[in-house]
Amino acid sequence: MTSTSGLTDRFGRVATDLRVSLTDRCNLRCGYCMPEEGLAWMPREQQLSDDEVVRLVRVAVELLGVTQVRFTGGEPLIRRGLVGIVDRIARLRPRPALSLTTNGIGLDRLAAALRGAGLDRVNVSLDTLRPDRFHTLTRRDRHADVLRGLSAAAAAGLTPVKINAVLIRGVNDDEAPALLDFALRHGYQLRFIEQMPLDAQHGWRRLDMVTAEEITASLVSYGLVPDQNRRGAAPAEIWLVPGHVDAAGEPARLGLIASVTQPFCGACDRTRLTADGQIRSCLFASQESDLRSLLRNGATDQEIAAAWRAAMRGKPAGHGIDDPSFRQPDRPMSAIGG
Ligand code: SAM
Ligand code: SF4
Questions:
Q1: Is residue 318 part of a domain?
Q2: Around Cβ 249, how many Cβ atoms within 10 Å?
Q3: Total domain count, the chain
Q4: 33 alpha carbon to ligand 1 midpoint, in Å?
Q5: For ligand 2, is residue 26 a contact (CB within 6 Å)?
Q6: d(Cα 236, Cα 232) in Å, to the nearest integer?
Q7: What is the atom index within ligand 1 of the atom nearest the CA of 334?
Q8: Is 245 inside a domain boundary?
Q9: Ligand 2 centroid vs 287 CA: distance in angstroms?
Q10: Mutate-to-test residue for ligand 2 from 101, 103, 166, highest number of ligand atoms within 8 A of CB
């Protein structure tokens, strides 16, 4: 494949990592993502069918050089056709690496089937070890379901199991050490993500955000050592936790995703497909490109690939959160696919 046939943008970045949102719906209501009453969900007919999702991912893999596919949402486990979609995408060649970001609810029932279908790994979101705080953060009493989901993922071999955690000031900002201890005990890899302005309510305030620097300061007793070999295009800054190993016997690692305070836009290798078939070149993009209409109007694979390439050429240099002209995208995180 020549570089012009892949998803290259004006700044020379090449997108090989595709995030596919399978639904905008969710069974939790995390305050940094959704309002308590939920959102007006996407009408079913606007959502891509299973066949349409598989076709677009096939175009991305076969014609556009995508090598990694992550399923997300909303909550991807509530998409009925999920196991079948994973199974069909795992059969594509070259076979992409397949992962899933989930809140973990229902993973106890689905983990083995997902592994069997070809899913390689999962990230489970868990911000707290305390059920009362879980309710404050998500407005639902499902903490035990998430813990069951985590165990099932590990048992099914969806490893390394990663935990995504967002710390919210005044709620769970004292929990970094407890979450790290929990992850170390179970052989999970913990990653803290700085809270980004992507909530539907537009309530994000920079001063309230718990920064990656504050998190590392609260973990000073662990003697974290930067893992020089593991940054690459991945957004997480990786730290080794001396004296600990993960479930595979590898040195234990901690990830810090400082999306706001230390943006990694210059090395970004992502492209995003929303549940209604729009391409977003960036989480914070103000523009989308409509592949669903193309698809439903009979476009060929080559025409879809060309539209996808054109969409990525418009990828902004950076998210610009620090720019006075920054405008939060209209779509919230749950409808873009986190
Ligand atoms: N529902 C699934 C979940 O929670 O893992 C997948 C979708 S969710 C949008 C993906 C990830 O985005 C989760 O780890 C969640 O914590 C994170 N997230 C959501 N809103 C965020 C925000 N405003 N800032 C930072 N991370 C956020
Ligand atoms: Fe749902 Fe994930 Fe958003 Fe929480 S972060 S409301 S689990 S989509």
A1: yes
A2: 7
A3: 1
A4: 7
A5: yes
A6: 9
A7: 9
A8: yes
A9: 23
A10: 103
Query: Can you give the CATH number for the domain in which 103 is found?
Result: 3.20.20.70
Extract long-range pairs of 45-50: CB within 8 Å, 24+ residues apart: 46/276, 46/292, 47/23, 47/275, 47/276, 48/275, 48/276, 48/277, 48/292, 48/295, 50/81, 50/84, 50/85, 50/88
Mean pLDDT of 323-337: 73
Instruction: Please indicate, yes or no, if residue 2 is contained in any of the structural domains.
Output: no
Better-scored residue on pLDDT, 133 or 260? 133
> Are 104 and 150 within 8 A, CB to CB?
yes
pLDDT of residue 67 exceeding 90: yes
Pocket of ligand 1 (CB under 6 A): 26, 32-33, 72-73, 75, 101-103, 125, 164, 166, 193, 195-196, 198-199, 333-334, 338
Nearest ligand atom owner, CA of 260: 1
- Of all ligands present, the nearest one to the C-alpha of 25 is 2
Query: Quick check: 189 pLDDT over 60?
Result: yes
Query: pLDDT class for 2, splitting at 50, 70, 90?
Result: very low
In a domain? residue 1: no
Alpha-carbon span 337 to 188, nearest angstrom = 23
Residue 230 pLDDT: 64
Q: Name the β-bridge partners of 209.
A: 168
Query: Quick one: 157 exposed, middle or buried, by C-beta within 10 A (0-12, 13-18, 19+)?
Result: middle
Task: Look up the domain containing 228 and give its range.
Answer: 7-336
- Per-residue pLDDT of 280-289, as tens digits, reads 988 888 788 9
| Across 234-258, average pLDDT | 89
